[in-house]
Amino acid sequence: MLDDFFVRAMVAGTGVALVAGPLGCFIIWRRMAYFGDTLSHAALLGVALALLLNVNTTIAVGGVSMLLALLLVALRRKNTLSSDAILGLLSHSALALGLVCLAFMTWVRVDLFGLLFGDILAVTKFDIAMIFAGGSFVLVVLAVIWRRLFAATVSHDLAAGEGLEPDRTELVFMLLTAIVIAISLKIIGALLITALLIIPAAAARRLSSSPEQMAFVAAFLGVAAVIGGLYSSLNYDTPSGPSIVVAAMVLFLVSLVPGGHLVRRIWAKRQGDRS
Amino acid sequence: MDNRETALVRLTKAGIRKGADWLVRGVDLTVSPGEIVTLIGPNGSGKSTTAKLALGILKPTEGSAQRNSRLKVGYVPQKLSVDWTLPLNVRRFLRLTNPLSDAECRDVLSKTGAERLLDSEVRTLSGGELQRVMLARAIARNPDLLVLDEPVQGVDYAGEIAIYDLISEIRNKQGCGILMISHDLHVVMAAADQVICLNGHVCCRGTPSDVSKDDNYHALFGRRSGDGLAVYEHHHDHVHLPDGKVRHADGSLCSSCSGEHHHEEHPETHQKHGSEHAG
Predict the structure, then answer these.
(1) Is the confidence metric ipTM above 0.95 for this complex?
(2) Superfamily designation of domain A5-274
(3) A205-234 pLDDT tens trace
(4) β-strands B202-206, B194-198: how paired?
(5) pTM of the full predicted structure?
(6) Phi and psi at residue A186, in whole multiples of 5°?
(7) Which candidate in B18, B81, B97, B117 is best for mutational testing of the A interface (most A CBs within 10 A)?
C-alpha cells in the first residue's frame, strides 16, 4: 500500500496534522506565530547542512531548529532587542544563509521549490517512520507537560508563583515545536509550516468550549485539510504545501459561519448537563 | 518576628534592580503560619515586586529570599488577561494548578460568592467577578501561604467586607500565612497582623492594634479615603525620581536609599530599624 506515492503522502500528512493541531493551539494561545515562522525558515539552513554533511534531512533540520530555539531563549533573556526584532533578525538571516549555502553547493541539485512549498512525490517510507516516531514522541511529551504548560499560558506569574517552573516547561514546548517543523518540512514546505500549526487551531476556536477540546478539533481539522489539499494537489498538479494551506483556510472560513457558534453552544450545554 | 524555623517565607535585605534602577531595595519581611502581613504604599512603590520576590517569581539582585521547602502557595496575581483564542471557563480555570471535583469547585465558589459563574467564560467576567474567581482558585489549593495582590480591586463594597471576612476566616481555620497587598486602609487595619509601608524600600512597619490606640491613628489610617492619603504624605519625606535617584525633602539628591527610614515625628508608631541597618 505504501508503494503508492500518494498513499505515502496521505499517511505522512495525516501524521503531521495530528501533531500540528494540538501544538498549534498553544502557538496561537501564546501568540508565538512568528516564533514558528522563525524556526521553519531556519529549516532551509538545516537542509543545506544535511546535504553538506551528508546526514538525514529531518534530523539536521530538527537540530538546527532546536539550536535556534535555544538561541532565541538566550537572546530574549539578555533583553537587548525587542522580542519580535530578534525573531525577524534570526528568521531572515537563517533563511538567507540557507539559500546562499545551497547556491554554493553546485555539485548537488536541490529542488528549491519543493523545499519551500512541499513536495508529495518526495515522501519516502523512512520519512513516514520519522514522522510517526517523532510525532508520537511530541504528543506524549505534550500530554505530560499539558497541565503545566496550560497554566503557564494562562498566567506565567501564577504558574511561577505556585511552583510550576514555567520557564522550563516553555523551553520544552519550544523544542517540541522544532521537532514538528522538522517532520513537516517535506509535506508542507519551509515557508508554510506555520500555517499548518495556526490555521486549523484558529478554525477550531469557534467550535470548542474547552482547551482540550480545541486541541482535538484542531487535529481533526488539520487532517481534513491535508486530505483535501493533497487530493487537489494531485488533481490540479499544484504544489502540496499551498494546496493544504488553501484547504485549511477554507475550513477556517467555514468555521466563521454563524453555524459554528451554534455547535459550540450545543457542546457547552452538553458539558453543563453532564456535570 | 524572629521565628526563623517556622517562617513560611523570609526576605532578608532583598532588593531587585532592573537596568540601572532599583525597583525595591533592603526589604526585610517574614510571613509565619497564621499571620496576615499587609503591604501598603503608593503606586510604583514595589508592592507587587516585593510579593513576586517572596514568591520566587523574581530573583533578588541582592539580599536573599527563602521559602520553606515544599511550601504550597496560592497566588492571586494583580492582573490576568485571557486571550480570545483561549477557550477557558471558570470550572477549567479553578482546576488550573490542582485537580478539583465539580462539588469542590461549587463549594469554593460559594465561599467567594461566585457560585453562579461556574460555567462562565473567564474573559467575559467583570473585574470584581474575576477577583472572586481567582481568590476561589487560590483558596481551593489549601495553601500554606496565600499571596493576594489587591484581592478586592473592582469588588463591590458589600463584597469587599465579605472577602476580607473570608480571608480572616481562612487564616483562622487553615492557619495559613497570608501576604496581602491592599489599598483599603481601614480593612487593612481590621485584618492585618503586621502592616509594611513600602516606597522603594520599607518606609515603616507596625502592628495595626498598636497603631489604632495611638493619637496619630486618624492621621495615619483615617477612615475616610481623603484622610488616608495623609499616610503617604506623612511617611514619605523623599521622592523617587524616574531616573532612580532620590530627592529628599530638603532638596538634596542621592542615588539610592536602601534600608528603612527613621521617623522621629511619631516614634511610638514605628519600630526603629535605622540602627540595625547602620550596624
Answers:
(1) no
(2) ABC transporter involved in vitamin B12 uptake, BtuC (1.10.3470.10)
(3) 989 989 999 999 999 999 999 999 999 988
(4) antiparallel
(5) 0.82
(6) -70, -35
(7) B97
